[in-house]
Amino acid sequence: MGIIIIVAFLGAFTVVALIMIASGTGSSKQTKQVIATLNSALATSSNNKRDQVVDLRKNELLSAVPWLNRYLAKIELAPRLRTLLYQANLKWTAGGLILMSLVACFIPGYLAYLRTSALLLSLAIGVGCGFLPLLYVRYKRSSRFGKFEQMLPDALEMMVSALRVGHSMNAALGLVTRECQDPIAGEFRICYDEQNFGLELRTAMENLVTRVPLQDLKIVCTAILIQKESGGNLAEVLEKTSHVIRERFRLKRQVRTHTAQGRLTGMILSLLPVILGVALYFVNPDNMSLLWKREIGRMLLYASGTATFIGSMIIRKIVNMDV
User: Fold this and answer.
1) Contact at 8 Å (CB) between 149 and 181?
2) How many helices and strands, by DSSP H and E, does the chain display?
3) What's the predicted TM-score (pTM) here?
4) CA 271/CA 284 separation, integer angstroms
5) How far is CA 147 from CA 88, 101, 136, 176, 185, in A?
6) C-alpha distances in angstroms, 83 versus 57, 122, 172, 204?
Protein backbone atom coordinates (compact mmCIF):
# COMPACT_ATOMS: atom_id res chain seq x y z
CA MET A 1 0.00 0.00 0.00
CA GLY A 2 2.85 2.39 0.83
CA ILE A 3 4.52 1.54 -2.46
CA ILE A 4 1.35 2.49 -4.36
CA ILE A 5 1.20 5.84 -2.53
CA ILE A 6 4.87 6.57 -3.32
CA VAL A 7 4.43 5.70 -7.01
CA ALA A 8 1.29 7.91 -7.24
CA PHE A 9 3.13 10.78 -5.55
CA LEU A 10 6.11 10.49 -7.92
CA GLY A 11 3.76 10.33 -10.94
CA ALA A 12 1.86 13.42 -9.83
CA PHE A 13 5.13 15.25 -9.12
CA THR A 14 6.49 14.30 -12.57
CA VAL A 15 3.33 15.51 -14.33
CA VAL A 16 3.37 18.82 -12.45
CA ALA A 17 7.09 19.27 -13.14
CA LEU A 18 6.62 18.59 -16.86
CA ILE A 19 3.73 21.08 -17.01
CA MET A 20 5.82 23.76 -15.27
CA ILE A 21 8.80 23.12 -17.54
CA ALA A 22 6.58 23.28 -20.64
CA SER A 23 4.94 26.49 -19.51
CA GLY A 24 8.31 28.00 -18.63
CA THR A 25 9.74 27.08 -22.00
CA GLY A 26 6.76 28.55 -23.80
CA SER A 27 6.97 31.77 -21.84
CA SER A 28 10.71 31.87 -22.48
CA LYS A 29 10.15 31.50 -26.21
CA GLN A 30 7.42 34.10 -26.14
CA THR A 31 9.62 36.44 -24.13
CA LYS A 32 12.49 35.98 -26.53
CA GLN A 33 10.19 36.63 -29.48
CA VAL A 34 8.89 39.84 -27.89
CA ILE A 35 12.44 40.98 -27.09
CA ALA A 36 13.56 40.22 -30.64
CA THR A 37 10.61 42.21 -32.01
CA LEU A 38 11.45 45.18 -29.80
CA ASN A 39 15.11 44.99 -30.73
CA SER A 40 14.31 44.96 -34.43
CA ALA A 41 11.96 47.93 -33.99
CA LEU A 42 14.49 49.86 -31.95
CA ALA A 43 17.46 48.77 -34.13
CA THR A 44 19.32 47.36 -31.09
CA SER A 45 19.39 43.70 -32.02
CA SER A 46 22.87 42.99 -30.71
CA ASN A 47 25.26 44.63 -28.32
CA ASN A 48 28.19 43.27 -30.29
CA LYS A 49 27.25 45.26 -33.38
CA ARG A 50 28.49 48.80 -33.38
CA ASP A 51 26.15 51.64 -34.13
CA GLN A 52 26.49 52.73 -37.73
CA VAL A 53 27.30 56.41 -38.22
CA VAL A 54 25.17 57.86 -41.00
CA ASP A 55 26.74 60.76 -42.86
CA LEU A 56 23.98 63.14 -43.87
CA ARG A 57 26.30 65.47 -45.72
CA LYS A 58 25.91 65.78 -49.50
CA ASN A 59 28.98 64.19 -51.07
CA GLU A 60 29.24 64.70 -54.81
CA LEU A 61 31.45 62.47 -56.92
CA LEU A 62 33.95 64.48 -58.91
CA SER A 63 35.26 61.53 -60.91
CA ALA A 64 34.62 57.81 -61.23
CA VAL A 65 38.38 57.19 -60.90
CA PRO A 66 39.20 57.04 -57.15
CA TRP A 67 42.64 58.67 -57.25
CA LEU A 68 41.42 61.41 -59.59
CA ASN A 69 38.41 62.01 -57.35
CA ARG A 70 40.70 62.47 -54.32
CA TYR A 71 42.96 64.82 -56.25
CA LEU A 72 40.11 66.95 -57.61
CA ALA A 73 38.64 67.27 -54.12
CA LYS A 74 41.83 69.05 -53.00
CA ILE A 75 42.11 71.68 -55.76
CA GLU A 76 40.00 74.76 -56.48
CA LEU A 77 39.30 73.83 -60.10
CA ALA A 78 36.88 71.03 -59.30
CA PRO A 79 34.13 73.17 -57.63
CA ARG A 80 34.18 75.60 -60.56
CA LEU A 81 33.87 72.82 -63.11
CA ARG A 82 31.12 71.19 -61.05
CA THR A 83 29.21 74.49 -60.94
CA LEU A 84 29.69 74.92 -64.67
CA LEU A 85 28.39 71.42 -65.39
CA TYR A 86 25.39 71.99 -63.12
CA GLN A 87 24.57 75.25 -64.87
CA ALA A 88 24.81 73.46 -68.23
CA ASN A 89 22.50 70.69 -66.91
CA LEU A 90 24.97 67.97 -67.89
CA LYS A 91 25.33 64.76 -65.88
CA TRP A 92 29.08 64.70 -66.30
CA THR A 93 31.64 64.82 -63.53
CA ALA A 94 34.51 67.28 -63.26
CA GLY A 95 36.98 64.44 -63.73
CA GLY A 96 35.13 63.22 -66.81
CA LEU A 97 35.31 66.68 -68.38
CA ILE A 98 39.03 66.90 -67.67
CA LEU A 99 39.69 63.44 -69.13
CA MET A 100 37.67 64.28 -72.25
CA SER A 101 39.67 67.48 -72.68
CA LEU A 102 42.96 65.59 -72.30
CA VAL A 103 41.93 62.96 -74.85
CA ALA A 104 40.73 65.66 -77.26
CA CYS A 105 44.08 67.41 -76.79
CA PHE A 106 46.52 64.50 -77.10
CA ILE A 107 45.03 62.48 -79.94
CA PRO A 108 44.67 65.29 -82.55
CA GLY A 109 47.98 66.81 -81.43
CA TYR A 110 49.77 63.46 -81.79
CA LEU A 111 48.23 62.81 -85.21
CA ALA A 112 49.16 66.30 -86.36
CA TYR A 113 52.73 65.76 -85.18
CA LEU A 114 52.97 62.46 -87.07
CA ARG A 115 51.80 64.23 -90.20
CA THR A 116 53.67 67.53 -90.01
CA SER A 117 56.59 66.90 -87.56
CA ALA A 118 56.06 70.48 -86.33
CA LEU A 119 55.96 70.54 -82.54
CA LEU A 120 54.51 74.01 -82.01
CA LEU A 121 51.88 73.55 -84.71
CA SER A 122 50.84 70.18 -83.29
CA LEU A 123 50.73 71.68 -79.80
CA ALA A 124 48.50 74.51 -81.02
CA ILE A 125 46.15 72.04 -82.73
CA GLY A 126 46.03 69.86 -79.63
CA VAL A 127 45.30 72.77 -77.31
CA GLY A 128 42.59 74.06 -79.64
CA CYS A 129 40.92 70.64 -79.79
CA GLY A 130 41.30 70.23 -76.03
CA PHE A 131 39.02 73.22 -75.45
CA LEU A 132 36.19 71.69 -77.51
CA PRO A 133 34.51 69.83 -74.57
CA LEU A 134 34.66 73.00 -72.46
CA LEU A 135 33.20 75.04 -75.32
CA TYR A 136 30.35 72.54 -75.62
CA VAL A 137 29.65 72.86 -71.90
CA ARG A 138 29.61 76.65 -72.16
CA TYR A 139 27.29 76.43 -75.16
CA LYS A 140 24.83 74.27 -73.22
CA ARG A 141 25.10 76.67 -70.28
CA SER A 142 24.37 79.70 -72.45
CA SER A 143 21.42 77.91 -74.07
CA ARG A 144 19.95 76.99 -70.68
CA PHE A 145 20.41 80.52 -69.35
CA GLY A 146 18.75 81.90 -72.47
CA LYS A 147 15.67 79.76 -71.86
CA PHE A 148 15.64 80.82 -68.22
CA GLU A 149 15.81 84.48 -69.19
CA GLN A 150 12.93 84.13 -71.66
CA MET A 151 10.69 82.39 -69.13
CA LEU A 152 11.46 84.71 -66.21
CA PRO A 153 8.92 87.50 -67.04
CA ASP A 154 6.09 84.96 -67.35
CA ALA A 155 7.06 83.41 -64.02
CA LEU A 156 7.06 86.85 -62.38
CA GLU A 157 3.59 87.60 -63.75
CA MET A 158 2.40 84.31 -62.31
CA MET A 159 3.83 85.26 -58.93
CA VAL A 160 2.13 88.68 -59.17
CA SER A 161 -1.22 86.99 -59.79
CA ALA A 162 -0.71 84.66 -56.82
CA LEU A 163 0.25 87.55 -54.50
CA ARG A 164 -2.75 89.62 -55.52
CA VAL A 165 -5.20 86.87 -54.61
CA GLY A 166 -3.70 86.64 -51.11
CA HIS A 167 -0.98 83.98 -51.32
CA SER A 168 2.32 84.35 -49.51
CA MET A 169 5.72 84.71 -51.18
CA ASN A 170 6.58 81.08 -50.50
CA ALA A 171 3.25 79.92 -51.95
CA ALA A 172 3.89 82.04 -55.07
CA LEU A 173 7.25 80.31 -55.50
CA GLY A 174 5.53 76.95 -55.15
CA LEU A 175 3.06 77.95 -57.89
CA VAL A 176 5.96 78.71 -60.24
CA THR A 177 7.52 75.32 -59.54
CA ARG A 178 4.25 73.54 -60.41
CA GLU A 179 3.10 75.53 -63.43
CA CYS A 180 6.33 76.51 -65.22
CA GLN A 181 8.77 74.31 -67.10
CA ASP A 182 12.45 73.69 -66.68
CA PRO A 183 14.92 75.28 -66.26
CA ILE A 184 13.06 77.94 -64.27
CA ALA A 185 10.85 75.42 -62.46
CA GLY A 186 13.82 73.38 -61.21
CA GLU A 187 15.76 76.38 -59.89
CA PHE A 188 12.75 77.92 -58.17
CA ARG A 189 11.89 74.50 -56.71
CA ILE A 190 15.29 74.37 -55.02
CA CYS A 191 14.71 77.86 -53.59
CA TYR A 192 11.22 76.82 -52.47
CA ASP A 193 12.52 73.67 -50.75
CA GLU A 194 15.32 75.57 -49.03
CA GLN A 195 12.80 77.91 -47.42
CA ASN A 196 10.61 74.99 -46.38
CA PHE A 197 13.62 73.41 -44.69
CA GLY A 198 14.13 76.55 -42.59
CA LEU A 199 16.61 78.57 -44.63
CA GLU A 200 16.19 82.34 -44.60
CA LEU A 201 14.78 84.08 -47.66
CA ARG A 202 17.95 86.13 -48.18
CA THR A 203 20.16 83.04 -48.13
CA ALA A 204 17.83 81.13 -50.47
CA MET A 205 17.81 84.05 -52.92
CA GLU A 206 21.59 84.37 -52.78
CA ASN A 207 21.91 80.66 -53.54
CA LEU A 208 19.53 81.07 -56.47
CA VAL A 209 21.63 83.91 -57.89
CA THR A 210 24.78 81.82 -57.40
CA ARG A 211 23.29 78.93 -59.37
CA VAL A 212 21.92 81.21 -62.12
CA PRO A 213 24.13 84.33 -62.34
CA LEU A 214 21.88 86.37 -64.63
CA GLN A 215 21.48 90.13 -64.35
CA ASP A 216 17.69 89.91 -64.67
CA LEU A 217 17.46 87.40 -61.81
CA LYS A 218 19.70 89.60 -59.67
CA ILE A 219 17.23 92.45 -60.21
CA VAL A 220 14.34 90.23 -59.11
CA CYS A 221 16.10 88.95 -55.98
CA THR A 222 17.23 92.47 -55.03
CA ALA A 223 13.68 93.79 -55.42
CA ILE A 224 12.26 91.01 -53.23
CA LEU A 225 14.85 91.49 -50.49
CA ILE A 226 14.42 95.28 -50.45
CA GLN A 227 10.65 94.88 -50.22
CA LYS A 228 11.05 92.47 -47.31
CA GLU A 229 13.17 94.94 -45.36
CA SER A 230 11.34 98.17 -46.21
CA GLY A 231 7.81 96.87 -46.79
CA GLY A 232 5.38 97.80 -49.54
CA ASN A 233 3.33 96.10 -52.23
CA LEU A 234 5.36 93.11 -53.40
CA ALA A 235 3.00 92.38 -56.30
CA GLU A 236 3.50 95.88 -57.68
CA VAL A 237 7.27 95.63 -57.24
CA LEU A 238 7.42 92.32 -59.12
CA GLU A 239 5.14 93.68 -61.85
CA LYS A 240 7.43 96.64 -62.46
CA THR A 241 10.44 94.35 -62.33
CA SER A 242 8.87 92.10 -64.96
CA HIS A 243 8.29 95.15 -67.16
CA VAL A 244 11.92 96.23 -66.80
CA ILE A 245 13.13 92.75 -67.70
CA ARG A 246 10.92 92.62 -70.79
CA GLU A 247 12.27 96.01 -71.93
CA ARG A 248 15.86 94.88 -71.35
CA PHE A 249 15.19 91.71 -73.31
CA ARG A 250 13.64 93.70 -76.17
CA LEU A 251 16.60 96.09 -76.24
CA LYS A 252 19.02 93.17 -76.17
CA ARG A 253 17.32 91.61 -79.20
CA GLN A 254 17.56 94.92 -81.04
CA VAL A 255 21.28 95.10 -80.29
CA ARG A 256 21.77 91.53 -81.55
CA THR A 257 19.89 92.43 -84.73
CA HIS A 258 22.07 95.46 -85.40
CA THR A 259 25.29 93.56 -84.64
CA ALA A 260 24.37 90.43 -86.62
CA GLN A 261 26.45 91.52 -89.60
CA GLY A 262 29.50 92.14 -87.46
CA ARG A 263 29.17 88.77 -85.72
CA LEU A 264 28.79 86.99 -89.06
CA THR A 265 31.81 88.84 -90.44
CA GLY A 266 33.91 87.79 -87.46
CA MET A 267 32.82 84.16 -87.83
CA ILE A 268 33.63 84.10 -91.54
CA LEU A 269 37.01 85.79 -91.12
CA SER A 270 37.93 83.35 -88.33
CA LEU A 271 36.88 80.13 -90.07
CA LEU A 272 37.70 81.00 -93.69
CA PRO A 273 41.51 80.51 -93.44
CA VAL A 274 41.10 77.11 -91.75
CA ILE A 275 38.45 75.84 -94.16
CA LEU A 276 40.30 77.18 -97.20
CA GLY A 277 43.58 75.63 -96.02
CA VAL A 278 41.98 72.18 -95.53
CA ALA A 279 40.30 72.39 -98.94
CA LEU A 280 43.55 73.36 -100.70
CA TYR A 281 45.35 70.51 -98.92
CA PHE A 282 42.91 67.97 -100.35
CA VAL A 283 43.29 69.55 -103.80
CA ASN A 284 47.10 69.80 -103.80
CA PRO A 285 48.77 68.20 -100.73
CA ASP A 286 52.33 68.77 -101.90
CA ASN A 287 51.85 72.49 -102.34
CA MET A 288 50.12 73.02 -98.96
CA SER A 289 52.57 70.83 -97.07
CA LEU A 290 55.27 73.44 -97.69
CA LEU A 291 53.67 75.52 -94.90
CA TRP A 292 54.84 73.08 -92.23
CA LYS A 293 57.79 71.45 -93.98
CA ARG A 294 59.77 74.68 -94.29
CA GLU A 295 60.78 77.10 -91.59
CA ILE A 296 59.33 80.18 -93.27
CA GLY A 297 56.05 78.33 -93.83
CA ARG A 298 55.76 77.49 -90.13
CA MET A 299 56.50 81.11 -89.22
CA LEU A 300 53.72 82.24 -91.56
CA LEU A 301 51.32 79.74 -89.99
CA TYR A 302 52.11 80.97 -86.49
CA ALA A 303 51.80 84.61 -87.52
CA SER A 304 48.51 84.08 -89.38
CA GLY A 305 47.03 82.04 -86.52
CA THR A 306 47.96 84.70 -83.96
CA ALA A 307 46.60 87.52 -86.14
CA THR A 308 43.36 85.62 -86.78
CA PHE A 309 42.86 84.99 -83.06
CA ILE A 310 43.53 88.63 -82.14
CA GLY A 311 41.22 89.85 -84.88
CA SER A 312 38.39 87.56 -83.79
CA MET A 313 38.76 88.74 -80.18
CA ILE A 314 38.63 92.40 -81.29
CA ILE A 315 35.48 91.79 -83.37
CA ARG A 316 33.93 89.91 -80.45
CA LYS A 317 34.67 92.81 -78.14
CA ILE A 318 33.06 95.24 -80.56
CA VAL A 319 29.82 93.33 -81.22
CA ASN A 320 29.22 92.24 -77.59
CA MET A 321 27.41 95.05 -75.81
CA ASP A 322 26.23 94.97 -72.23
CA VAL A 323 22.56 95.97 -71.95
Assistant:
1) no
2) 15, 0
3) 0.66
4) 20
5) 12, 27, 17, 15, 11
6) 18, 31, 27, 17
